[in-house]
Amino acid sequence: MIKNLRDPTSEYFRTIKLFKSDVKLYLANIFLTHIGYGIFYVLFNLYILQIGYDLDFIGYLTSIGNFGTALMAIPAGLIIHRFGLKRPLVISSLLILLFSILLVSTTSNILLIIFNLALGFVISLSMVVRSPLLTKSSSKIERTHLFGFSFGLMMISSVVGSVLGGYLPNLIKYCTNFTDEATIFRISLILGGIISSLGLIPTLKISKDKITTFNKLGRRILKIKYPKLYAKLLTPHLLLGLGAGTVMPFLNVFFKKHLNASTSQIGIIFALGSLTTGIASFLIPFVTKRFGKVMGVCILEISSLPFLLMIALIPNITLVAIFYVIRQALMNMASPIYSNFVMETVPSEERSITSGFSSFIWSMGWAISSFYSGIIMKNYGYNIPFFICFVFYLLSVVTFISFFRKSEKK
What is the CATH number that goes with domain 19-205+225-404? Predict the structure, then answer.
């Protein structure tokens, strides 16, 4: 029994050693940037409430940011083809820092919308780079491990960010004379942006890549080889985005207002969710080996749905925290498996464009659903969006398995 356990574990670590230097540098970038993202995720909506806005404006602001990400997603694929992977990654890192600081330095609703839209643009560029870079810098031998490992590392760094986000306001209050909550939240968010910017250092050492011409790219995007395949790949992703946008942007507000959690408690809950997801993500190669990529995605997503409902139905913060942690691990484990499946399904020369389409569809789903979800939460309570999310998630699983249940064998 011990030997059987050791064999897959040893194989896992042997495969990890195959990661190339560019991959290791990019993983360092992921770790540092997602610490800042973790801080931002815990505090930003609470900061918006603190400066006098309500749930409907949070929904509108989230929608605008994701709309910007969606608008930029397909052009981001074009930019990557034109300028390679490294330069867009470096430029987007710098601009994310700039617009993050500008975003939390104003209370004007117009400027909040403008800066959040701009931040959505540059985050889109950073997101679209990820899958093509990981795919390009790996062989099929270690690729599944790499996607799982990178996602797990992302979650682990989010743990650090969530804990910092939960405790930074109290730490700043203790170490300074500041008493205004909005100012304390603002300083915490700026510190998160600075930590994220440190991810630029390893990025600068990534080797330059070959660049295609813009004209060649233009012809390529207008002549996608398999349009029906893209429709099948992206439809479940759109449904998933529509579901996620109804709930995920508002979880910190849900814990704060509905369950009366403190900022530090929210940080700990988010950290536990990211930590469990991160640890579970290292098991992704074993899941795909046992069930395959398609069934692996479906089993994980279906398993998460009962816990989503229990979050909405049980008004106990301890139980809800447990359900949240389990749901996060199960649902988020499916994400890198899906990304890997998509990247291996489409032609290699269309991976950047595919990543752009995927980001566009996901962000558009978030933009649409987060807009109406903020209004629903404000007028009809916090629970209804969870039921809407459940329906979209279920539809996503059904469409994905119906489209691809036989394709993996082929």
Answer: 1.20.1250.20
